[in-house]
Amino acid sequence: MTKVTGVIAENARSLYEVINSRRDTRREFTGEPLAEDVLQRLLSAAHAAPSVGMSQPWDFIVVRDPGTLNAFAEHVAHERDTYAATLTGERAETFARIKIEGIRESGLGLVVGYDPTRGGPNVLGRHAIADAGLFSVVCAIQNLWLAATAEGLGVGWVSFYREQTLASLVGLPAPVRPVAWLCLGAVSTLPDVPDLERYGWRHRSPLAGVVHRERYSPRPN
Question: Does domain 23-189 have CATH number 3.40.109.10?
Answer without folding.
Answer: yes
